[in-house]
Amino acid sequence: MFVHEYQAKKLLKRFGFYFPDGEVAHSAGEARALIDRLSGDEWVVKAQILAGDRGRFGGIRKADSASDVEKETRNLLGSTLVTPQTGADGIKVNTVYIEQAVKIECELYLAILLDRYQRELVLLASQRGGTGIETALEDAPDTLHRLTLSVDEAPDEAVLLGLADKMGLSGELVNDYVDTCSNLHRAVNELDALSIELNPLAVVEDNRLATLDVKMEIDDNALFRHDEYSEIRERNRLHDRKFRAQSGFNYVQLEGNIGLLVGGAGLALATMDLLKLHQLEPANFLDLPPIATRQDVANACQTVLQGASVDALFVNAVGGGLTHCDTIAEGLITVHMQEKIRCPIVVRFAGTKREHGLTLLKNYRVPIEHAETMDEAIDILRRKNRR
After folding, report:
1. Who has the most CB within 10 Å: 85, 123, 165, 305?
2. Is the pLDDT at 126 greater than 80, yes or no?
3. pLDDT greater at residue 68 or residue 339
4. Which of 73, 101, 129 is the last residue before a domain boundary?
5. Which of 197, 229, 251, 330 is catalytic?
């Protein structure tokens, strides 16, 4: 589960990180009203989407008056922000975070993440931080320092002192940096995070370290341990397409026009290969797990259909596990009753509750074309293909 910047900062506050004053706004009027509660005389208006590179593509804007804050908030809310991490369709901005502007002396990069292959925590640090960090580190890979950390034991202070020296820090900033690294390690463990990235971690005008932006991913398998995540999960599910793509299924957006709703990763990959073999382009990878519910299917279907490039939807499911074909059908019916599916729908069902699923779709008048075999499905899709 990914979380927005303002949500991540709220979660991290109890671990001793320093953030400039900031609050969330959902309207221009709300943004203007909260300025009286924030410190300083300059602010930053930040679009809250689950993607990086916001600053380079207009998602972070400076304001030096309450009226400017209101104007920039109005410009951002409801707009679609497109960055290299959103895909061509972009993500709609529903929330902004208004934060006190600070004078930055230098920007650093600091992150702790789980290395799944080595089954260990890894700390990454660089003197280069801020916008375009990926490109900067590609150009100068020797500036990225990597430390292996124990999950159970706090990082060695002597090692962190050496790392602070490599960051070019001195005086009180050294202790501040060591504390920040230790606090970050504790936060990763206590929050059950797969990764927390502070970028930039900035030296600001009062000679202290300030966390100006945060990316955080929480382990879905640990959600049951954290009641505080339920509100975050529900709020993001309602407003963010990319978040819905993490809610009960695996989703990757692609550049094609054939939307895929497929049960199982293996079948999804085989379906994509078959489309490519016949010069058809998949719009996404999507893997419904074997325990998907009707609502999971509906969320998945909505996510696929919101892609502007989707000209047809191919539903390819083999009923098994706890998700049978009738559950897939119920999810499609839910979406169709809410918003009417207007693109062609090709359905191939096999396995448990196949006939029942097809009967449900017929009874609820979902306009599908049924394919008995993959060859039939491909023939129908080729006829419907607009490219």
Report:
1. 123
2. yes
3. 68
4. 101
5. 197
Chain Cα centroid distance, residue 46: 16
For residues 186 and 47, membership in a common domain is answered with no
Is position 197 annotated as part of the catalytic site? Answer: yes
Which residues sit opposite 282 in a β-bridge?
A: 258
CA dist 115 and 291 (Å) reads 27
Instruction: From the candidates 6, 97, 109, 251, give the one annotated as an active-site residue.
Output: 109
Domain housing 164: 1-19+103-242
| Number of domains into which the chain is organized | 3
Q: Is 251 a residue of the active site?
A: no
Q: How far apart are alpha carbons 168 and 275 in whole angstroms?
A: 53
Q: 31 Cβ partners below 8 Å, 6+ apart?
A: 25, 45, 69, 70, 73, 96, 98
> How many percent of the chain have pLDDT more than 70?
94
3-class secondary structure, 140: coil
Query: What CATH number is associated with residue 67?
Result: 3.30.1490.20
Tens-place pLDDT, residues 229-260:
877 876 665 445 554 445 557 788 888 999 99
Nearest to 214 by CA among 191, 233, 235, 230: 191
Q: Which of 242, 259, 282 is the last residue of a domain?
A: 242
**Structure-token match 């820090």, residue found:** 169
Q: What is the mean pLDDT of residues 188-207?
A: 94
CATH code where residue 178 lies: 3.30.470.20
Burial of 321 (0-12, 13-18, 19+ CB in 10 A): middle
Query: Quick check: 318 and 347 in contact, CB under 8 A?
Result: no
